[in-house]
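**User:**
If convenient, please work through this fold.
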Amino acid sequence: MDLLRTSALVTALSAAEHCLGFLYRILLSRTLGPEGLGRYQMALTLFAVFSTLSASGLTVTLSRTLASHYARGKKNAARAALSAAVLLALIASLTFTLLLFALRPLLKGAFSDAGAAGLFYILLPGLPFTAVYAVLRGSFWGEKRFFIYSFTELAEETAMIVTGVVLLVLSPLALPKENLAAGAVLLSHLVSFALALGCFWARKGRFCAPGKQLGPLFAAALPVTAVRALSSLSGMLVSVLFPLRLTAAGASSAAAMAEYGIVCGMVLPVMHIPSAFLSALALVLVPEFSECAARGEKEKLSALTAKALNAALLTAGALLPLYAVCGREIGILLYDSARSGMLIALGSLLLLPMSLTLITGSLLNSLHCEKEALFIFLAGTGAMLLCVLLLTGELAGGALLLGMGAEYTLSALLSLAVLKKKTGRLRSGKFALKTLIMAGSALLFGLSLRPLLFLHLSFFPALLLTFLFVAAAEAGLMRLLRLVRFQALAGRFLPRAHKARPRAAQGGK
């Protein structure tokens, strides 16, 4: 299966997962409210720190290690590497779980909200299962078993949503809604672990002595883990600093938590919609990148980089006008919150740097650029924290969006510079210019059209027509600027309508 079709398959599964998760997020926002959603998001952010420390670096490192071993025909070394990764993940996750439960009385002061602390300890028993699950998915990734990789993630999301709906909507349990939502997350971790292990055994996978793979794998995973752990820690730090800075500016504790819930629980899920496609593309490209790097195929690396960057630019460029023009109404429609809609419209400017950062970060990891990635992360995080510290009092949730914009823009520019050095050249300059022309033109068209439609039509018909007209304008501009060749794209997936007929037999017996 070629790169485009494989990406399409993975994208379909990823899109289904993101769609289900997005719908569930709407349910959570309406069930928990902004304050409860902020508390729930804070607990998930803290859990993500220890999940990252336990296995995140191992997942990426194992995938590229397996790709490299299989490219050289070293199947025994690949099996030993997988066993080493599972052992390391188990040791780390069990250590964190036991320590955090043992030190629970001493850690009360570490949480800015007591309710968030309770939710975190509901999630904590799932840490060892999440860690091993992440490693097993890393093995599927490295072996290019993309369907299993994506399917297990979709199953995890489905388990969480089904359980969450049952507990939050149908269950008569007289427990806080946030606790029930956290319980649904815990159950989804158990389901995903069982499913991944079942898939591993079904394809006759087995573990063995890690041998000499333990040390090299740990050393290779450590820089990636450090970068990702720092990223998770920065997210946790922001979740603590932002409410504190807002209360220092005069807001109540409940209002500060609600504002955090609006940004992180309502706005960011909408901003992350492009990741459904881009994460699928990165999933397919990373093993390919690792193999090309192992063979020294620099020209192919450059070509793959151009494809990835063009996909990121086009995805973000297509969504930017839609978010900017319809963002306010999207927030009202999804969350019944005009505040979230205003922030969605403002956050549309995040899409381009966010998409570029997502795809370039994955490519740099596959090229063993851990030191460069660490420097890029520190620079971006510094910009983010400065915005939160200095601007939260004046801009409230806007300070978070501005900080993310500064972080993603700086990270994208530095990552592109490193990619250019590693691959020889970047071929996406002309494509980027065309994408900006398309997005800018569609944005101006939408901003001109929107007031007329909302003046003469009711809310939903006006929103729908605005969305459709802007999307149609984008499609026309994409074709005019040759950003997408729709006929060629359809030909990759649709069977030809007519097949060449065999030549008539000439003569006869």
